[in-house]
Here is the input.
Amino acid sequence: MKGVLYAGLAFLALGLQITVIPNLAVWGVRPNLVLITVLAVTLRWRDTFVFVYAAALGVALDSFTHGILGVYGIAFFAAAMAARFAGSAMYEDNIAASAIAVFGLSLLQGIVFVSVFRTLDRTVPWWGWTLGRVVPEAFYDALVSPLVFLALARLERWTRLQARA
Here is the structure.
């Protein structure tokens, strides 16, 4: 049941990332709702399939953004691996700890993303992208993440109640 719920959430996050989130850009920086969803699911779902989930969502986001397949896939996979380690060290339902974890994991994902992208294209300014895009996006992700975590918890509770009725 959780897999179906999280698959639906993935499609919703991907759709919102492509259509609505670009309109929420502040100074050209927008939150990565797909990454926040991947991190929220990784911290809550203990199945090893979550790594495939993260990589698949990354490749899906790649196909709708910059066109080089695999860059987000690799970065989301790395962030999911780190989130699994971070998740075992923190209290699951603590929103503040989750927001701090999202900030750090978003930084990690961004650094991996820029590093892979720079490997493919040497003209990419690593420091410029990291300081101008990755760090502000990590702050924005951390600010938005409590909404995603609360919505996910509520959705899980609602589906659990519906299954019992």
